[in-house]
Specification:
The complex is a heterodimer of chains A (about 325) and B (about 140).
Chain A (H helix, E strand, L loop, with lengths): L4 H10 L3 H13 L2 H10 L6 E7 L5 H14 L4 E7 L8 E3 L1 H4 L9 E7 L11 H10 L4 E5 L16 E6 L6 H5 L3 H4 L2 E4 L7 H14 L11 E3 L8 H17 L3 H25 L2 H8 L6 H15 L5
Parallel strand pairs in A: 1-5, 1-6, 2-4, 2-5, 6-7, 7-8
Helix pairs in contact in A: 1-2, 1-3, 2-6, 4-10
Chain B lengths: L6 E7 L6 H12 L3 E9 L1 H11 L3 E6 L4 H14 L6 E6 L3 H10 L4 E3 L5 H18 L1
Parallel strand pairs in B: 1-2, 1-3, 3-4, 4-5
Helix pairs in contact in B: 2-3
The chains are: A alpha/beta (about 325), B alpha/beta (about 140).
Chain lengths: ~325, ~140
């Protein structure tokens, strides 16, 4: 596809054309200069909130995503889903299997599911998920659910992307000290104890509620609800969706300044990283560096490329 | 720009629950560096086409051991074309008699059919060649 078609594609995305959305998502996944054109063409369009769903592997994220979506559909909302799974570190390929557990959503034209490989990114998130969510919002989805890889305690990268962080804890996953450790519990906006049909879930629920009460502050602080949900028995789902929508409303009144600032900073850092790397790869010295991989210190090689760039400036674009 | 990874949808149309073959293929394609979207069993043609559209795949791989291949495979191929996804390479696997294979590939738009005992390297090579040709043509 040539560059001239990107604005046309963006227009079709805004119209809600599903095929155009799918193709635009592929551009995002692929990266490169067209991503920036797409971003520029769609900046400022779309509303709706982005809910990041995280939790340990097997905690029930996919099943929960399905029942949340069904409840949102009952309330007349259109839902976009981005399901991230890990890439193989060996082949670079991936096996994206979240659709298996989203069987009940298949064929619903008010739902759009896209699977993405994380391309080995830290924190279990594909670098491009933020752009993917932007596309879905521009296409008119009232809520976008982002299901992360579930890297466990280190999956905090979701906070840099999502408006609302939904943490899924399954019963009996560890003692109280696990919970007091810094990490996901600190950034969660809504906590779900999944599989609440299981007998050991009430203990986990009580522990987490006691813990979150300790962290409660003033009126300006969102008080994090801890909710029991059983995806199998379909209980607690309406209350969970109420909480997600309430948090989205709360954000309208209380914009999270530290999170927003951090997000702007990270976006700038990512843009610098991408653009600088692309500029350096245009230099004659880049192919020389590639041929000498492993022979010299990588810090030294990077330094030389930067010096070459400063001496020569941009070669194109 | 780097060459985009090949995206493959692996689905089991119809009602048989024998998914060992589909999983072996899915894993082999992942190991060949492709992004494989696995949908599992019990898929209707409509569900398969919707998934192929949303995931913007290059290849649709269908595994079928129920005997309903002469009904289901042409349906999937037709509906893919109707949805504007005529560029997708369609590959089928399972227990499909040779005479049916000939009809499916010559008359119903199935690009290749692989039976038990196929070397997965052959499937990988076919997908790479065919997808490269289709991408160059588009």
């Amino acid at each position: 596809m040539n560059d001239a078609t990107v604005p046309q594609l963006a227009t079709a995305v805004r119209r809600g054309d599903r095929r155009a959305l799918a193709r635009a998502l592929t551009i995002i996944d692929r990266g490169g200069v067209q991503v920036r054109r797409l971003r520029q063409a769609l900046a400022g369009y779309g509303v709706g909130s982005l809910v990041g769903i995280t939790g340990a592997p097997g905690a029930g994220k996919s099943s929960l995503t399905t029942v949340i979506t069904q409840e949102l559909r009952r309330r007349g909302m259109q839902v976009g889903i981005i399901a991230v799974d890990p890439s193989s570190p060996l082949s670079g390929g991936s096996l994206l299997g979240d659709r298996i557990r989203m069987y009940d959503l298949a064929g619903d034209s008010g739902v759009f599911i896209r699977s993405m490989a994380n391309r080995g990114q830290y924190g279990g998130l594909a670098a491009s998920t933020l752009d993917a969510a932007m596309l879905m919002r521009a296409a008119g989805f009232g809520m976008v659910l982002l299901e992360t890889v579930g890297a466990g305690q280190s999956d905090v990268a979701v906070v840099d992307v999502a408006d609302t962080v939904l943490l899924v804890e399954s019963p009996g996953m560890g003692d109280e000290v696990q919970s007091i450790k810094a990490g996901l519990l600190e950034v969660a906006d809504v906590i779900v104890v999944s599989k609440s049909d299981r007998p050991d879930s009430s203990a986990t629920l009580q522990q987490l509620r006691a813990l979150m009460r300790m962290q409660m502050g003033s009126d300006d602080v969102w008080s994090v609800p801890v909710l029991p949900v059983s995806a199998i028995q379909q209980t607690g789902v309406a209350e969970l969706v109420d909480a997600l929508l309430a948090h989205a409303e709360w954000l309208q009144v209380h914009p999270p300044t530290w999170r927003q600032q951090r997000r702007y900073l990270l976006a700038l850092q990512r843009a610098i990283d991408v653009q600088l790397r692309e500029a350096l790869q245009q230099l004659p010295g880049w192919s020389v560096a590639l041929a000498q991989l492993g022979q010299y210190d990588s810090d030294l090689m990077a330094r030389q490329l930067l010096e070459e760039f400063v001496a020569n400036g941009f070669t194109k674009e | 720009m780097s060459e985009a990874p090949i995206r493959v949808l692996v689905a089991k149309p119809g009602l048989d629950g024998h998914d060992r073959g589909a999983k072996v293929i899915a894993r082999a394609l992942r190991d060949a560096g492709m992004d494989v979207i696995y949908t599992g069993i019990g898929q209707t043609p409509h569900m398969i086409v919707e998934a192929a559209l949303q995931e913007d795949v290059d290849v649709v791989g269908l595994s079928i051991l129920s005997g309903a291949h002469m009904t289901l495979l042409p349906k999937v191929a037709t509906q893919l074309r109707e949805a504007g996804l005529g560029h997708c390479v369609i590959i089928a696997g399972g227990i499909i008699p040779a005479e049916d294979s000939t009809i499916l590939t010559s008359q119903h738009g199935i690009d290749a059919i692989y039976g038990p005992g196929t070397n997965t390297d052959d499937i990988v090579a076919f997908i790479r060649t065919t997808v490269a040709a289709r991408r160059a043509a588009s």
